[in-house]
Specification:
The longest helix has 16 residues. The strands form 3 sheets. This protein has a 6-stranded mixed beta sheet with strand order 5-6-7-3-8-9, sandwiched between helices. A 4-stranded antiparallel beta sheet has the order 11-12-10-13, with helices on one face. A 3-stranded antiparallel beta sheet has the order 2-1-4, with helices on one face. It folds into 2 domains: 216 residues, Rossmann fold; 63 residues, Alpha-Beta Plaits. It has 314 residues and is α/β, with parallel strands linked by helices. It is built from 12 helices and 13 strands. Bound molecules: adenosine-5'-triphosphate. The site of adenosine-5'-triphosphate has 11 residues, from strand 2 and helix 1.
Length: 314
């Protein structure tokens, strides 16, 4: 379990993290989301005792990380995979970590195999790709078989096989009863691996809830409907006061996306007026939609195209 209470961090006049309180529970994967600069890495660093909070506390299984005698046995972390000393071999890098935490060389070989780096164990890290460094970072996090894992962007640089592997690894670790906190900007990946979400923006807590509840609460359902007679369907949608967008428009094929509607309502409307339909289905709301809606006002760094994106629900 990770417990964060009133956690605050100022860098000079800049507030990176502001009065954050949340609990990360064991047995599930908790996704830690937020736009660039939201304060995720700073929060993780404070939990790990690598940064001192300006105010508040962060504990892992009830204690401050700085107080652990063998930290790797208590909490495994992946923060910046690029920061590993390049002159060492992968095995030597892990051996050194193992020795300082009273772990065996056999465990080093075990985790090298687990992350798929056995064949590269005696190669110097400076020749490693980003994905290989990432795997090595994950090996270090797993080395002490810890009950708590904190992983900052673990899929960064991984190939599709690696992404698939980490997804299953996270789920397995949670199923074993461990506490897993993982940040990622890849919403599609998060949607597949996380059970619970903590979302922050500009250092503040925006949401702390199960994945399904988050998507339900912050995204809007839409129904997609296609007809060969758009000129007959559109007045029906207007007449029923439904909010819609025209996705495709040709005289013999119109596709509409109808907001906050039920497929049955639209099907009945069309049937009542004898308008044929070629498609009618409810579009599943995505985590990405929900996330963009919630964080629209908390995004500091926005691209031109995104800056013009209409805000849902605004
Ligand atoms: N050592 C530091 N000195 C000064 N400011 C810092 C320092 N570390 C982080 N910050 C600032 O704190 C804020 C939060 O940064 P942080 O890296 O925690 O965000 P993040 O959510 O991890 O972002 P990203 O998704 O881009 O990695 C940012 O405004 C950042 O510029």
């Amino acid at each position: 379990m990770i417990e964060v209470a009133s956690l605050t961090k100022h860098y000079g006049s800049r507030t990176a993290v502001s009065d954050l309180t949340f609990t990360v529970r064991p047995g599930r994967v908790t996704g830690f989301l937020g736009p660039n600069g939201a304060g995720k890495s700073t929060t993780m660093r404070m939990i790990l005792g690598l940064d001192r909070p300006t105010r508040g506390t962060a504990t892992v299984t009830g204690r401050r990380c700085a107080d652990f005698a063998d930290p790797l046995r208590e909490v495994g972390a992946l923060l910046d995979a690029g920061a590993i000393h390049g002159g060492r071999t992968a095995r030597n890098h892990l051996l050194q970590l193992a020795q300082s935490n009273r772990l065996t060389a056999a465990r080093v070989d075990e985790v090298l195999g687990l992350v798929g780096l056995a064949a590269a164990a005696n190669h110097r890290v400076k020749g490693f790709s980003l994905g290989m460094r990432q795997r090595l970072g994950i090996a270090a996090a797993l080395l002490g078989d810890p009950p708590v894992l904190i992983l900052d962007e673990p899929v960064n640089g991984l190939d599709p096989e690696g992404i698939h592997w980490i997804r299953h690894l996270l789920r397995d670790l949670a199923e074993e009863g461990r506490t897993v906190l993982v940040s990622s900007h890849l919403m599609s990946e998060m949607a597949l691996s996380a059970d619970h979400l903590i979302v922050i923006g500009k250092g503040r807590l925006l949401a702390d809830m199960p994945m399904a509840a988050f998507v339900d609460r912050y995204s809007r359902q839409a129904v997609r409907v296609a007809t060969p007679h758009p000129a007959d369907l559109e007045p029906l949608l207007k007449g029923a006061d439904l909010e819609y967008e025209v996705v495709e428009s040709a005289p013999d094929r119109g596709v509409f996306q109808v907001r906050d509607a039920r497929a049955a309502t639209i099907g009945d409307l069309a049937a009542g007026a004898g308008v044929p339909l070629h498609e009618l289905f409810t579009q599943r709301a995505s985590l990405e939609d929900a996330y963009l809606t919630l964080t629209a006002d908390s995004t500091e760094y926005r691209t031109g195209a995104d800056a013009q994106r209409p805000r849902d629900g605004a």
